[in-house]
């Protein structure tokens, strides 16, 4: 009977060991699944953040290039106005300059 009892105790220990091994394996599988899920969530969040930053960058580039286009147009308009102003001034003093040049060219000094 003592041998049966020992055999029974050994069987219980083996069964407990197998059960413990199954629990450990299940825990490892669950941990691995959680890690995989966490990695996928992190990659998804990174992709969303990257897309958001890229969209913001593109918006800023569009704004700055739009501003530079507006600046170019403004500068062209200002330049055209200044050129017209200079032409008007030149036209208004042109007769005086011609008279002065003719006077200096035709006057002989001794």
Give a description of the structure.
This protein is mainly α and 110 residues long. The model has no long low-confidence stretch (mean pLDDT 89). It has one helix at 2-106. It has one domain (1-80). The protein starts with a helix and ends with a helix. The chain is rod-shaped and about 155 Å long. Helix content is 95%, strand content 0%. Belongs to the V-ATPase G subunit family. Residues 28-59 form a coiled coil. GO terms for molecular function: ATP hydrolysis activity; proton-transporting ATPase activity, rotational mechanism. This is V-type proton ATPase subunit G.
Number of helices: 1
The counted number of beta strands is 0
What structural category arises from helix and sheet content?
mainly alpha
Q: What is the N-to-C order of secondary-structure elements (H for helix, E for strand)?
A: H
Strand content: under 5%
- Biggest sheet: strands, sense, closure? none
Apparent shape: rod-shaped
Mean pLDDT: 89
In the predicted model, the low-confidence regions spanning at least 5 consecutive residues are none
Radius of gyration: 46 Å
Straight-line N-to-C gap: 156 Å
Number of domains: 1
Q: Percentage of helical residues?
A: over 70%
């Amino acid at each position: 009977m003592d041998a049966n009892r020992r055999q029974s105790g050994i069987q219980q220990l083996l069964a407990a060991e197998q059960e413990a091994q199954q629990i450990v394996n299940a825990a490892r599988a669950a941990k691995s699944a959680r890690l995989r899920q966490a990695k996928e969530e992190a990659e998804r969040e990174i992709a969303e953040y990257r897309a958001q930053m890229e969209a913001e960058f593109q918006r800023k580039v569009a704004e700055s290039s739009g501003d530079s286009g507006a600046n170019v147009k403004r500068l062209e308009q200002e330049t055209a106005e200044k050129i017209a102003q200079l032409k008007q001034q030149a036209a208004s003093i042109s007769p005086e300059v011609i008279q002065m040049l003719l006077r200096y060219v035709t006057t002989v000094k001794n």
